[in-house]
Design goal:
The complex is a heterodimer of chains A (427) and B (457). Chain A is of the alpha+beta class. Chain A has 14 helices and six strands. Chain B has 15 helices and no strands. Classes of the chains: A alpha+beta (427), B mainly alpha (457). Chains A and B meet through helix 2, strand 2, helix 3, helix 4 and helix 5 of A and helix 1, helix 5, helix 7 and helix 15 of B.
Chain lengths: 427, 457
């Protein structure tokens, strides 16, 4: 009530005229009259769109269709670029060998995005062009104007119009058939939002700060509890994982060994010479054909494999002094260490190649106590490489026991041996 | 109110689109009083309670599904798309009548649409909401449903834009968005009418915000009409594309019974068919309970039954073409499916229910008596909806008979399947009942343009 009293005390400014009409014919007549009188800042209001009003009032065509056209073109370009970039550039995905980017398959999404962009533009475009939403329209405070959305027709003329003359305009409107003509006033007090809405807004704003603050706090502090796992996504499953213990089997192993006698696919290995170094029941004295030609390439390969697998224990020259052995012997707490053999001992020198191959493959239990002195390298090294290592071992052994006659004549000079006659180096 | 028969076909005079008192004020009063009434009719409460109960059951079953996994459905090899996709296609199809009435009939200047378009558009949005529910929960891990959208992510992956399932995501979400915009844009002037009649403060504030300060200015009307026309022009191809894209889900696959070029038009015709049946199902009781017989006249109902009859014939033609092509193509797989498995196989009852409800029974609408008797209409419309649901079920059961007999199987729905289907009806009716209670059921501003005065130059 106090608000109304305050409002009535202030001088009220007439901002325009509002004329009420009973039917659309009168409204059209009034609109033409206003246009003829040169009034530009006037508008008509009706509960439904009145045909012929655009011409009567001189309303220009809206640019909305052009905006929608632009949006449609933009939607088309965006859709094509999106599909091309995501499916052909950033993450090319081969689907049944079809082209990575082909227009027919991309038409549906392109079409939908054209419609989506256009529709949103049409909707928000018409609101923006109409200046909506607008909640402080003085017209809406006129009691009579409430019927504008039901069954009455109105013309408003703004006082700001250059040709505005209250009496003249009022007469023109009445002549056009106005039921009533009344003044519109600028609201002295702008429409107020009720206090309850303000309070609710403050409360909501305060509450809205809680989640980000909570997150910020949790990101800065430490916690002993595991993180919350609301969606388990099959992360926790009742199953035994590899290399883990189980109560299900007597040996407590989750990984099951194959049934005894199982031969894996491709591992039948039914050539005893190549795979086991045997010729009949004896160790073979020769290299098998499958090991390939016994040549320099095989020797080089054998040296490389020897240096990788064997030299750590046997030493680069096969003297049984590899770094692993040296270190183990140096440590007092490794009494179980069995020093590797030198490959140049008589027992090894006498072994046929098949036996050396067998030793590499299966390891050797030198003390016959059930523990391997040398572990088996069969699982790590392929048979061909094992034969290559055997070849290199032969070369190492030969290097300690070679005669000068073993060398080709051309190589003998390169050795720079002292000439027995002059006791001087050659060359 | 004097009951006027406006179903005559005298070409010398134009049948009135609205009967009873036909001035703007009475239209406003008739429509607004429904939304302003302090208490709706008792039948509304009964229906509301029933719908809320069904929605509760639906919510619980969805919760059970999310917590347990999609195994609670009957979906299993070879039918991984069971009832959820049947329900999805069914509900999307229902929605199509709304857009057809609001957009296509608008472009064709079929002015009788004005009385029913608001209701039909509302139905569209509620049906699309029911439809969207099923694929969303069908993804299994619903909390990852946003993976459907193309967004930059830490996986460095993008959706496959050449998949019909992705087209479906775009088509249905675009359809839902555009339908909602179209519906809301059409409602703004009517919300303003309600605002200007509001007596309580809260109601006035709420409606002021909802109507965005609409005044009915001539300039606003000019742009509004243009925007409405543009949206109608956009929604028209959209509605045809949506069910075409839905049909691509099947037609692009190689399953016999799915891989046919007739699917897009056949699906669109079926969608409009089922949608109009649903509009009739809703409009007949709504006009009776809310006193809208003068606005939604017998002529409106008759026109809708004619659309149902026409689309029924189209659907029947599609069924016939499928059979003919199965024979004419001499493709043994197609022939087995269309000429053997469907009509005489394990799901033959569904097939013959579909044929009866969709092709045979709607032929009753050739009789004027059936076109103008509300209870007959509703019964036929309900049967049409049963038939259209069965049609999608029959299509889905093609999966049980693949090319390889070794992968043949069967599909048996679980109780959860049944509960969810019934629950989705509960959701649909609940939304519709709330719409009837609180929003303008008839597009007042549009009806006012087709009143007798509106035709005067």
């Amino acid at each position: 009530m106090t608000e109304h009293e305050e409002q009535s005390d202030q001088p009220r400014v007439v901002s325009g005229l509002l004329a009420e009409f009973a039917d659309q014919q009168a409204l059209l007549t009034a609109a033409r009259a206003m246009r003829d009188a040169g009034v530009r800042r006037c508008d008509c209001y009706s509960p439904y769109p009145v045909h012929g009003m655009e011409r009567a009032l001189g309303i220009r065509h809206t640019i909305l269709p052009w905006l929608v056209l632009g949006a449609g073109i933009a939607g088309c370009i965006v859709a094509l670029l999106l599909q091309w970039w995501t499916n052909a550039v950033d993450y090319p995905l081969n689907i049944s060998g079809k082209p990575i980017f082909s227009l027919p398959a991309n038409i549906p999404v392109t079409f939908e995005l054209i419609v989506l962009f256009s529709a949103f533009t049409a909707f928000f475009g018409v609101l923006a062009l109409n200046g909506l939403p607008r909640f402080n329209n003085p017209l809406l405070e006129q009691a009579k104007f409430r019927r504008a959305t039901s069954d009455r027709f109105f013309v408003s003329v703004e006082a700001a119009d250059p040709v505005f003359d209250e009496t003249r305009i009022s007469d023109l409107l009445r002549a056009a058939g106005a039921v009533s003509v009344e003044q519109i006033f600028d609201s002295a007090v702008p429409a107020k939002i009720p206090l309850a809405v303000h309070l609710a807004g403050v409360v909501v704003l305060c509450l809205a700060f809680i989640p980000p603050l909570w997150i910020a706090k949790d990101r800065q502090t430490r916690s002993d509890t595991p993180r919350i796992h609301p969606v388990t996504d099959m992360d926790f499953q009742p199953k035994f994982k590899p290399q883990a213990e189980t109560s299900l089997f007597a040996d407590s192993r989750t990984m099951r060994p194959p049934v005894a006698g199982t031969i894996a696919r491709g591992e039948l290995n039914n050539d005893p010479h190549f795979y086991r170094g045997l010729a009949g029941h004896e160790f073979a004295p020769t290299f098998p054909e499958q090991a390939g030609p016994v040549d320099m390439a095989m020797m080089v390969r054998g040296r490389e494999r020897f240096d990788i697998y064997c030299a750590t224990c046997h030493g680069l020259a096969g003297d049984g002094n590899g770094i692993t052995s040296q270190r183990a012997l140096a440590r007092a707490d490794s009494p179980a260490w069995r020093p590797p053999l030198s490959l140049h001992t008589q027992g090894v020198l006498e072994q046929p190649v098949g036996q050396i191959f067998n030793t590499i493959t299966k390891g050797v239990d030198r003390l016959n106590d059930g523990n391997l002195s040398m572990p088996a390298y069969g699982p790590q090294i392929s048979p061909r490489d094992r034969w290559a290592i055997v070849l290199y071992v032969l070369a190492l052994q030969r290097s300690r026991n070679a005669q000068l006659d073993d060398l080709p004549v051309s190589e003998r000079e390169a050795l720079q041996l002292p000439d027995p006659s002059t006791n001087q180096p050659t060359r | 109110m004097a009951v006027v028969d406006n179903t005559f076909n005298d070409p010398t005079q134009r049948a009135p689109l609205v009967i009873g008192p036909t001035d703007c004020a009475s239209v406003t009063n008739t429509v607004c009083e429904i939304a302003e009434r302090y208490r709706p009719p008792r039948s509304w409460y009964v229906a509301f309670t029933f719908s809320v109960a069904l929605v509760g059951v639906l919510g619980l079953s969805i919760l059970y599904l999310i917590v347990t996994g999609v195994g609670v459905w009957g979906n299993n090899s070879p039918v991984f798309w069971g009832w959820p996709i049947v329900n999805f296609v069914f509900w999307v199809g229902i929605g199509h009548a709304g857009t057809l009435i609001s957009a296509i009939l608008f472009l064709f200047r079929q002015q009788w649409r004005t009385s029913i378009n608001r209701m039909a558009e509302a139905m569209t949005i509620f049906a699309v909401a029911c439809a969207g529910l099923f694929p969303a929960i069908h993804v299994g891990r619903i909390w990852l449903v946003y993976w459907l959208a193309p967004y930059p992510n830490y996986l460095g992956m993008w959706p496959n834009f050449r998949s019909p399932l992705l087209w479906d995501v775009f088509a249905v979400s675009t359809y839902a968005s555009v339908s909602a915009l179209f519906w809301y844009l059409g409602m703004i002037p009517d919300l303003a009418t309600l605002r200007d009649r509001a007596t309580s403060t809260i109601r006035r504030y709420a409606l002021s915000v909802a109507s965005l300060g609409w005044t009915g200015s001539a300039r606003a009307w000019h742009r509004y009409e243009r925007a409405y026309l543009l949206l109608a022009a956009l929604a028209t191809p959209l509605v045809l594309s949506v069910h075409s894209v839905v049909s691509f889900d099947f037609a692009v696959a190689q399953v016999p019974g799915w891989h046919t070029t007739i699917f897009p038009p056949y699906f669109v015709a079926g969608a409009i068919f089922s949608g109009f049946a649903m509009v009739v199902t809703l409009a007949v009781p709504a006009r009776a309970y809310f006193g809208l017989k003068g606005l939604i006249t017998m002529r409106h109902l008759e026109n809708m039954t004619k659309v149902i009859l026409a689309t029924s014939c189209m659907v029947g033609y599609a069924y016939g073409v499928e059979l003919f092509m199965a024979w004419y193509s001499q493709n043994p797989h197609e022939a087995f499916l269309f000429l053997g498995n469907r009509p005489f196989g394990p799901y033959a009852p569904a097939y013959w229910t579909m044929v009866c409800c969709n092709v045979v029974i709607p032929q009753l609408f050739w009789l004027k008596k059936c076109r103008t008797t509300p209870w007959i209409m509703v019964i036929i419309a309900l049967l049409v909806n049963v038939g259209m649901w069965m049609e999608r079920f029959v299509i889905m059961m093609s999966l049980t008979r693949d090319y390889l007999p070794s992968s043949w199987g069967s599909f048996i729905p679980t109780p959860i399947d049944v509960v969810m289907l019934i629950g989705s009806f509960g959701l649909f009716f609940l939304l519709f009942l709330l719409f009837c209670r609180y929003l303008p059921m008839v597009a007042m501003a549009e009806v006012k343009t087709v009143l007798p005065h509106g035709h005067q130059p």
